[in-house]
Amino acid sequence: MAKIMIQGTASSVGKSILVAALCRIFKQDGFRVVPFKSQNMSLNSYITLDGKEMGRAQVLQAYACGLEPEVYMNPILLKPTSDKKSQVIVNGKVFGNYTAMEYHNMKSGFKDMLKKHFDKLEEDFDIVVMEGAGSPAEINLRDKDIVNMGMAELVDAPVVLVGDIDKGGVFAALAGTMLLLKEDEKKRVKGTIINKFRGDVKILEPGLNMLEEIIDKPTLGVVPYFRLKLEDEDGAVDFNKKVTAPIDVAVIKLPRISNFTDLDALKNEEGVSVRFITSIEEFGTPDLLIIPGSKNTIEDLKALRENGLEDKIITYSKDGMIIGICGGYQMLGENIEDPYEVETELKEIKGMGLLDIETVFEKEKVTTRVKANVIAELFRKHKTSNNDCNKLEQVYGYEIHMGTSSYGIEADPLFEIVERNGQSLEKQVIYKDGAINTNGNIMGTYIHGIFDGCSFREFVINKLREKKGLPYKKANNYESLRESELDKLADIVRESLDMDKIYEIVGLEKKL
User: Fold this and answer.
1) pLDDT, mean of residues 484-505
2) Which residue among 23, 65, 326, 389 is the active-site one?
3) With bands split at pLDDT 50, 70 and 90, how would you rate the model's confidence at 383?
């Protein structure tokens, strides 16, 4: 069956977005196409309809293929919990927490599972577009590799090598990578792509010609630098620090921030600026403060306490609006307990005391796709002006957390969950999520993607506009925007690459 693998000279050279582009191009050309990344390392994850956890990059790639994201597209996900340790997710479920060396020594044991997944994809689809991780020139990892050349060899996939010219040194990076490959690996590389180019390609042509002579591989195209309203590549996020629009949304950039894709829909809202802050000097006077998810809530709360941001947040809470998501929600509460030492050896820590909730970490992780009704009275009074929105009474997203939170007398539930993993819940098992304080200005939720639905986002942003004397505006439909941006991405990449050569590498003839 037809396949192609995109590898890179380094992390963040644009592998993920180029895979998404090729997926959309092949789909537009009439092929059944699917993405595959055997191992991803990211704190941005997603929950599938059957309650399994996978990397967000493959979610965007699935959408580019016109598919519902499924865990076979990313069978192994590594979520760093510290500089030396990661939570290992295998086939969507927690496999365990391991040091880098422990995981490196167990990787070979996953090969049969990965090959089985890939063989099934070959049966079900016309083309598999594979993505590597980091660089195949990481020669210290070669003997147990399951994500770059090791994976390519396992399924006999042709490889295209991508370099990022925006970083500088792209010719050295491409040539140096080829130099460090073994002879059989060099033969597997069928060409190179230069990504993120700014300027006149003619100026680049002498270098392209010399590179082809040096590495004896053709240049398949030069992709220009572009900005589209799509999710950021996992390791290449632009954490903007400037206020660029009338509505100032500040996000605490936690040391172990996770699922910052929760903010993407806000970033694309007209008149809204989303910036990230790490110190009290950067705090300013935001219209909305968001405390996002964290892979280690306790350690990140301690960090906020030590750098003075916690005190700043508490002072801001008297007049400002705060929304906490997952770990950020837990931090806003009165107390966090970790009796099983899920995160740290510290079994209990005092929260910020801004929401009357208490959280206890459990042994099992909650991973569910949910739909929920808004039950907080503040929101139920609102009537959405946007016919393209889902009704305000319902929001959707997904949960990924170890903790459960209980309510005190001064906190009311924000939502009630009515559907989990595609299954409607009976009235007697509907449960509450999130909390809002009595003043209605501080709230939190376990639901990631809470802003993707346009009516909840419209309500929140219009409350901020109202406070500043600005006119109300309709929110955009994020899903429709994503689809149009994926088509734009495909147009840019199709024009930049030698698609005839790409189809030759894939092993298929382009459909008329």
Assistant:
1) 98
2) 326
3) low
